[in-house]
Amino acid sequence: MILLGVILLIIGFVAKIAILWTIGIVLVVIGAILAILGMAGREVAGRRHWY
After folding, report:
1. Per the structure, how many domains does the chain have?
2. Confidence class of residue 48 from pLDDT cuts 50, 70 and 90?
């Protein structure tokens, strides 16, 4: 999810499309939160690992 967010950020920046930039930021933040919770050993939505 973090990788997809970064790709959307790059595409949004290069193409100057604001909605892609916004979606990219949201995906990076959500991906980072899920990664941190996963590293802490907490299950998120019944899953221990998010790939």
Report:
1. 1
2. low
